[in-house]
């Protein structure tokens, strides 16, 4: 399904809109939140509305767009966020509601900070999950216990709870900046926004061999998906970065992306990854490395093939994104600097890299031994050889311990 830019559907001749060649597409109304016109290849033009019920987003059909006027369709929708008062130094009153401040926060972010896709996701989280529960409440009156209760209930009903909490937290910081709350009073502070589990931290060599064998076994039936999965494994790139990759972005052993989740970045291609692209380039006739059914658009998914491959490899809980975790973990445990690993992954800060770099026990043990040895070396006599020339004996360390214990007893007896 393709999504187009929001437009004012009241000024459009709906009957003249072109239909998709196959399937359906949605045209979203810019004036009513959640309202969209669904165009199908069969010829139907239908109003649908997205609404939140029990914490889940549901799609409801309103009727035929040729017989139901757009104004009538808009009446079924959730009232839009109030328009922010731009260029006004006294932007909000002391009794400003969450709905009022949220509108200003989203407008501020879209203009100065976020990518368009991020703005759409946060607007959806606000409209579907924050405003129905907290929209009428005064920003200054929101308490931590109130937020905790709201978030706990939301977590039980939708996977969007983390994004909703992050959106609310950002709005509260925005409210602090505008004097609506005391500094440091963010009621979302400290609540878990991102799970840092061990899932997909470091795949074992046996798992990797089974996975690669499964990819090879499905390559003839699922050529494009298997190439996508190979590139994800070899580059640590995000799925969207590989699926939307264009040929004119591939040059000199790298893919230079104008836009990604973290903005412009470079995906570095090792020799096997470059060989995959070289093979595909000789067979390609479109601008996309992985074209979809329509050559003018990229492939949208490899999920079906991935389920088959994952099952054959014996990894029922393995996710495509775990290949990125594995890439980062291998980089860290092999001794690469976190900044280098972060650059390979397209991260802007080390904290983001640490989420992916789960070090296995053996690597932690080796690191602990190394640190202990360095400390032991530092306790050696000034004239003793350095750790790079001679490893101190166990006996010398034991002598130092006995000497320390003896001096400690002497002090105690005194």
Automatic annotation (TrEMBL):
Q: Which PROSITE patterns does the record match to this protein?
A: CB, TYR_RECOMBINASE
Q: Does the keyword DNA-binding apply?
A: yes
DNA-binding listed as a keyword? yes
Pfam families according to UniProt: Phage_int_SAM_3 (PF14659), Phage_integrase (PF00589)
Q: Where is this region: Disordered?
A: 184-203, 376-414
Q: Which domain of life is it from?
A: Bacteria
Domain Tyr recombinase: from-to ranges: 198-369
CDD domains reported for this sequence: INT_Rci_Hp1_C (cd00796)
Where in this chain does the record put each Core-binding (CB) domain? Answer: 96-176
Of which family is this protein a member? Belongs to the 'phage' integrase family.
Question: This chain belongs to which protein, by name?
Answer: Integrase
Please name the source species.
Answer: Novosphingobium indicum
């Amino acid at each position: 399904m393709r999504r187009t830019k929001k437009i004012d559907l009241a000024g459009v001749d709906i009957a003249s809109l072109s239909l998709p060649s196959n399937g359906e597409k949605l045209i979203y109304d810019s004036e009513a939140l959640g309202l969209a016109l669904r165009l199908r290849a069969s010829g139907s033009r239908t109003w649908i509305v997205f609404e939140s019920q029990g914490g889940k987003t549901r799609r409801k059909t309103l009727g035929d767009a040729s017989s139901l006027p757009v104004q009538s369709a808009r009446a079924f929708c959730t009232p839009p966020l109030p328009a922010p008062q731009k260029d006004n130094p006294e932007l909000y009153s002391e009794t400003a509601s969450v709905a009022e401040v949220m509108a200003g926060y989203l407008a501020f972010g879209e203009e100065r900070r976020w990518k368009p896709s991020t703005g759409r996701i946060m607007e959806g989280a606000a409209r579907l999950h924050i405003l129905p529960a907290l929209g009428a409440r005064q920003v200054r009156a929101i308490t931590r216990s109130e937020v905790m209760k709201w978030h706990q209930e939301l977590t039980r009903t939708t996977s969007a709870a983390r994004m909703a909490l992050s959106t609310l937290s950002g709005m509260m910081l925005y409210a602090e900046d505008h004097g609506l709350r005391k500094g440091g009073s963010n009621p979302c502070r400290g609540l878990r926004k991102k799970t840092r589990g061990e899932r997909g931290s470091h795949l074992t060599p046996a798992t990797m061999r089974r996975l690669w064998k499964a990819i090879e076994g499905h390559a003839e039936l699922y050529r494009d998906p298997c190439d996508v999965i190979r590139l994800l494994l070899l580059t640590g790139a995000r799925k969207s970065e590989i699926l939307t990759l264009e040929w004119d972005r591939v040059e000199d052993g790298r893919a230079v992306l104008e836009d990604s989740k973290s903005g412009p970045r470079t995906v570095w291609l090792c020799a096997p990854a470059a060989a995959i692209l070289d093979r595909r380039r000789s067979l390609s006739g479109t601008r996309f490395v992985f074209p979809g059914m329509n050559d003018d658009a990229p492939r949208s998914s490899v999920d079906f093939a991935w389920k088959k491959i994952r099952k054959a490899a014996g990894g029922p809980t393995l996710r495509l994104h775990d290949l990125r975790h594995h890439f980062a973990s291998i980089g860290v445990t092999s001794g690469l600097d976190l900044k280098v690993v972060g650059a390979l992954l397209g991260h802007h800060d080390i904290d983001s890299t640490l989420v992916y770099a789960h070090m296995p026990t053996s690597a932690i043990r080796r690191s602990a031994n190394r640190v202990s040895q360095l400390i032991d070396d530092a306790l050696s006599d000034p004239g003793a050889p350095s750790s790079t020339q001679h490893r101190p004996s166990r006996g010398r360390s034991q002598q130092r311990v006995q000497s320390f214990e003896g001096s400690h007893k002497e002090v105690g007896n005194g």
